[in-house]
Design brief:
This protein has 312 residues and is mostly helical. The chain has two domains: 134 residues, no CATH class; 115 residues. The chain is built from 13 helices and no strands. Helix 4 packs across helix 6. The longest helix is centred in the middle third of the chain and has 46 residues. The protein is flat and about 80 Å long.
Length: 312
Amino acid sequence: MTLALILSGALGAGLWLIVMGQPVGRPRPDLSLALQRLSAQGRGALGYDAARTPMFSSPLLERVLRPLLDDAGDLLGRLLRRVGIEAGDLGARLALAMPEMTAAQFRGQQLATGVIAAAVFPLMNLLGVQLAGAWPVWTWLAGFGLGFAAPSWQLNARLRRRHLGVLAETPVALDLFVLGASAGLSPEQALVEAGRQLDGVLGGGLREVVREAGLGTTGYAEGLDGLAAREDVPELRSLADAWRLSREQGMPLAPAMLALAESARDRQRTRLLEEGGKAAVRMLFPIVLFIFPVFLVVLLYPAGVQLLGIGR
């Protein structure tokens, strides 16, 4: 009885930690810190410890559990890199989708969710919550695997939504460049206006390029190259090349941007057609599993009754 109470308390504490670790349970970010992060000097003055976002709303949990999760995640990351499993781009992916979290914190979150998911099955064995006998050890391992992979699935989903958002904004951004260049704006002014008119991820990236160039951290061309490499969109690489040629050699910007906009829209139409084809294939699974068996039963049951003479 005592062991069951201890495990029940541990499970309740773990579930409470998961809930407190979600965005709903986190404190709102400080506006002054957010404004300071907009400049390179402000980010340098903040430093790593002050710039990171708290994981828990409770200061006690932030002081006690966060260092443990950070150390465990750092140890796991080094172990994965030593065995050759760690891809090495986790930090870059987190910077895009979860900028408030470091690689060590992400690995620590994976360990925590994996351990909590694995502990559910032995706890249910102790409490007598069983379907067809005791939950075997392989279900514990499967629970750990699912819990460990859940943060990665969330990260990949955020990255995919971000990439699709950038792809959707790219033709609009190119049209804005065309309008700006046709109106007689310089390449720098066209870049400023395009970033000002867009509200999504790409608009934020263009405004960051303008801001960093204004601070003297990087030039416009280097900022566009970095944006294209970060978002991995071919049209953005072509945009950076065309913008550089227009800036350095005086070539007209509008025709190149117009051709890029048409190419981006053609690529978007092709992607939509591919997604439609994949959706048609995915629809076969519920049809085969759920609709087709019922259809066969409806058709074959009357014939089977007549052949077997059940109704006589």
